[in-house]
Amino acid sequence: MDKPLKTPPPYPVASVDHALRAATMLQMEGGATVSQIAERLGVARSTAHRLLAMLVYRDFAVQDENRVYHAGPVLELAAHSQSQVSRLRAAALPHLHRLVDLLDETVNLTVRTGDTARFIASVECGQALRVGSREGMVFPAHRTTAGLLLLAELGDEELEEVYAPERYRDRPGDRPDLGPLRAELRRVGRSGFAVNRELSERGLVAVGVPVCDPDGTAQAGLSVSMPGVRYDPHRLRPLVAALDSAARALEADLAEGR
After folding, report:
1. What is the CATH number of the domain that holds 19?
2. Which of 55, 71, 87 is the last residue of a domain?
3. Residue 21 shares a structural domain with residue 142
4. DSSP state, 133?
5. 119 contact partners, CB below 8 Å, separation of at least 6
6. String of b and e for 129-158 (b: at least 16 CB within 10 Å)?
7. In terms of residue numbers, what domain contains 191?
8. Which of helix, strand or coil describes residue 196?
9. What is the pLDDT of residues 49-86, one digit of tens each?
10. Are 53 and 95 contained in the same domain?
């Protein structure tokens, strides 16, 4: 049996959320200044400075001689991983903002690592009832739009390896039933897009398309998320067309920057 859907806490602690988001930014993107962190979190520079000072104290961050903060020993990733994610995110952000302006819904960029999907960029829409930023969050890949798109790239043997039973020895309930999952991945592969109806969070619907390498291999998923009450199946094709257009433009930008 799968894990229960993620539900936002009823009494979120803003300072904790800000610290966790700042740490995630440093881990994924390789470095940021106080001003950049403050702008991304929507807080004062003094608040961002205090958050970063605590992250440094707990070894979640380090500060270099240019006063740029980087992931500390607790969060450190390989340099090539930081570079790749940072480049992908930077290239995608203008396209995400344009999609939000066009669709007036929250838009995300997600990558897969093993059986998990990580949101590396998220731009919220301005509607009062909206899906909040998922940036930095990690979900089971088979429960996300982008995760399904990226899993659909795998052959049967690769999928078996990702979900090998021995990987779930201590958490057997987390392993999905591969029969229905394969059927869903075949549908996603044929259509070229994925629809997620409350797979990851209650009341949320998402639609996504792949972002591919020059060789045609999907490297990320580009998706739009909205409250289920606002999703209209008759809008599916226009949503997919808008996402496809943005994904192709992002692919062109990434190819030009190689």
Report:
1. 1.10.10.10
2. 71
3. no
4. P
5. 108, 109, 110, 134, 135, 136, 137, 138, 139
6. ebbebbbbbebbbbbbbbbbbbbbbbeeee
7. 79-256
8. strand
9. 999 999 998 878 889 889 999 888 777 654 445 568 88
10. no
